[in-house]
Structure prediction request, 97 residues.
Amino acid sequence: MFTVDVKSNLGNIEVATESNKGHSPEWWAKQCTQRICSVSENATPEVRQQAEAFKVAIYNTILYHINAAINSERCTMRNLLEQQGHKELAKILTELK
Prediction:
């Protein structure tokens, strides 16, 4: 008889899906913020308050830059489409939000 005892500690595994779209910038900013900073359960109320304020600042900074990157990529794509003679596609891309 052969017995295998396997133990693994993978931590928390999450799966998040969307219907007919990708995740929003807010979702990505939240994921980044959670990976960057966390608040200890043993933190004093004062430290917890400061840490939560820091998390909000980190979230807002990440969200701002994600949105800036999206806008920059859209601008690049519009310009490339126009340069290749696809003015209608570039117009449609401009109108998408």
User: Anything to note?
Assistant: The chain is about 60% helix and 0% strand. Residues 25-95 form one domain. The chain has a mean pLDDT of 90.
